[in-house]
Amino acid sequence: MKKYDVAVIGAGPIGGYVAGKIAAKNYKVALFEKNKRIGIPVNCAGLVTPRVFDFLSFSKDKCIQNKIKGANIHSPSDKILTIGGDKVHALVINRTLFDQEITKNSEKKGVNLYLKNKLLSINRKKNFVEFKTSHNENIRCKLLIGADGPKSKIRQWSNLPEPIEYLRGIGAEIKKTNLNSEFVEIFLGKKIAPGFFAWIIPTNKKGTKARIGLCIDENAKYSPKYYFENFLKNNYLKNAIVTKHIGGIIPLGVLKKTYDENIMVVGDAAAQVKPTSGGGIYPGLLCGSFCSNIAINALENNNFSESFLKKYHKEWTSEYGRDLNFGMRFRRRFKNLSDKQFDKYIEILSNQKIIDTISSYGDIDYPSKLVKPLLKKLPTILKLMSVSNKK
User: Fold this and answer.
1) How far is CA 383 from the centre of its chain?
2) Prediction pTM value
3) What residue ranges of the chain are covered by domains with CATH 3.30.9.10?
4) Going by DSSP bridges, is the β-strand pair 138-146/128-133 parallel, antiparallel, or unpaired?
5) How does pLDDT run across 65-101, given as a tens digit for each residue?
């Protein structure tokens, strides 16, 4: 039986970050990953805001592939709304290198990394948790942190709430494209990606390589593969060659509880994902900072009770819950829009004053910041969306 202060399940960017922060305080921390290599397979579009690197101590130049200044949003009838273009709003990262750098830093801080170790069973004892892995590792820890993804075993074992919904995603790395490297292309429509959207993200400065994909909701008529094969016929992709396939699921909807006795869940396991974009790296790292701080606090006080760990849930929801809840309200309206309504909104928003407002106040990580400025310029949009939601 190996004994640790903290065991983190899942060595993605959030699990690696949390493990490293706790280990930096000289606590004994283990990090478990079911795959044989960090960052493989990839199941992410790899588009983040620059503020992601505020949490990390390595140079962002190691994993940045491209810089994005704006977006072209295509309606179902291919009306185009162009926003941004004035400054860098997002960074395209190599997710494999990104994850690996985070884990390397964590190991330097003393984290013990276990690869190819799938969680098999968990038992709670008095004041600690014991679990077994697929490599016959028997582990005892005071605190178990689940960063083990959308279908988290830690969350399920603890009987914590499930996400409100799951998006099904599929994508690919491609080459031989001819894109404006400073803009992402976003495609809306029930025939393209029902319940969400499709994207093309240039991954180099020449615009000759890209990461593409789409997500659909659980009620879509066909499979993700069906919509993806249709998407490959898009004019932007007519000469493209697929070099690698990616895919996965995205959990949405704030959990009412993300802790239990000796247990916390974080990142995708806690559905800390932006409903407007499906991005989980920034909210995961932000919430991970609260998770690691409370973990350190619990270790200092030797208190791993449910009532003590509740502080984690209170802190992260106080900081970011508003934006996640706003995202879900927006999403409920968004997924009920018809293709005709999408066309109508793109047309309404294609006003220079509105575009300038979106470009000035729009924030991928904090979409609620745009609401008040947009309502001042276009007060009718709230009424239109309310009507659309009833249809």
Assistant:
1) 30
2) 0.94
3) 47-93+165-252
4) antiparallel
5) 999 999 999 999 999 999 998 899 999 999 999 999 9
The DSSP element (H or E) to which 381 belongs, if any, is: helix 380-390
Classify domain 2-41+95-163+255-331 at the CATH topology level: FAD/NAD(P)-binding domain (3.50.50)
Structure tokens at 96: 């494999």
The rounded distance, in Å, linking the Cα atoms of 285 and 16 is 10
What are the structure tokens assigned to 212, written together? 């593409």
Neighbours of 313 (CB within 10 A): 22
Q: Residue 113 corresponds to which tokens in the numbers above? A: 């990394």
CA distance 262 to 59: 34
- What is the side-by-side order of every strand in the sheet holding 90-93? 47-48, 90-93, 64-68
Q: Tell the CATH superfamily of the 47-93+165-252 domain.
A: D-Amino Acid Oxidase, subunit A, domain 2 (3.30.9.10)
- Token match 């319940």: residue? 195
| CA dist., res. 374 & res. 361, Å (int) | 9
318-332 pLDDT, tens digit each: 999 999 999 999 999
E strand map for 188-302: 198-202, 209-216, 241-252, 259-260, 263-265
Q: Rounded to whole angstroms, how far apart are CA atoms 55 and 69?
A: 22
The number of residues in the chain equals 391
User: What residues are paired with 204 via a beta bridge?
Assistant: none
Q: What is the pLDDT of residues 212-244, one digit of tens each?
A: 999 999 999 999 999 999 999 999 999 999 999
Query: Where in the chain do CATH 3.50.50.60 domains reside?
Result: 2-41+95-163+255-331
